[in-house]
Task: structure prediction
Amino acid sequence: MGLLSFCLLSLLAIAGVDAAQLSLQSPRFTISSGDASQLRSEPISLKQRPEPLKLAPTDVLKLSFQVVEKDGEKGVQPHQTFLRFFDAVSGEEGIQPVRVSSSGKAKFELNMAKPPGSIPPTTAENPLNVSLLLGSFEHSPARYELFDLFLPASQSAPPHELEHTFHPQPLIHHTFRPEQKVPPRIISAAGAILVLAPWVVLVGFLAHIKPSVPQLLSINIFPFIATLGASEALLFWYWVDLKLGDVLLYGGVLALFTAAAGKKALATKGDLRVGRK
Amino acid sequence: MPASKTPSTSQKSSAAVASTTTKQTQQQVTGTTNAIQTLFKAYNETTSSRLKLVDAFLVFLMLSGISQFLYCILVTNFPFNAFLAGFGSNVGQFVLTASLRAQVNPENRTVFKDVSPERAFADFVLGSIVLHFFVYNFLG
Result:
């Protein structure tokens, strides 16, 4: 397989070196006006460019040539034939395919009343460099510089419906709600008293009920109360300073102690309730 | 003279009606007062001090929530997150405490046969700590 590929590549390389050259025979251009009167007609020299061609808005440019092998008179139909219109100033180009007959003869017509869309935008000052590109599987590619062509200046492109969106837009002004204000100090104080008043009611109730907690300080119950207080203190610390990860870590460790102390305290309390102790 | 007797009769009757209405109103007020007093007396005598303690805490939570809500409506809700934290804390704690009360009430023993008062208190404590964690998150 490798040997076969090597042989094929070698043959292709040899064929490329020995490929015949393409040439043009009797290339000619004719410029006629809109009323079919001939304005200019000249053969094209492939060695020296003719005077630049100028087309009026209604003129017609006709181009004719025959593609032949360089060393003979045999007409050749290339696989690809293009006319290239290139604006050296703007750098824009347009490619126009050319139909070539099997005998190698080709005719191209450029009617300025209906210019093809592939022509690049033109100005009255800058000519288009027109060149012919020939491509063939059996021959070496060829490129011929034909002439310079002045075309009527292009009309300005109609504005696109979204064209205005590509211009600087007016500045966006965001409207924010006004900053919330802290109420006057005296109203805040009155509100604080209002919100704290239920504590007075709670203290009054506690004084009236007088709850008794005789086992609060016992060795079995107090650790539970202490760990509960520590949990609330940890949450307060979280509010003041700690990060979430810290409080979850500390809270997880504290939860183990709280659960153990709670189980012991509540078991003791349950035993007391049912009279086992 | 019937013409002169008729007004005095109607005045007497309207006065009698007014007197009757006033008496009925007084009786209603008295009855309501008696009912409240009876209810309060029965509550004092039949409710254990533990349940009274829970009830006191429930009343405190209710008053605290109402006062915070009034402050939010009448004065300002700024900072709103603090209001949410305080009010949410009140509501959440009220729900947890009411649940505790329902479970430790001896009259509900038949409903919560499998839940001991200690277990109910453990649930209350755990729920309260989780609630307070979220409340401190909201405080900002």
Notes: Chain B touches chain A through 32 residues (CB under 8 Å). The longest helix of chain B spans residues 2-46. Confidence is low (pLDDT under 50) at residues 1-5 of chain B.
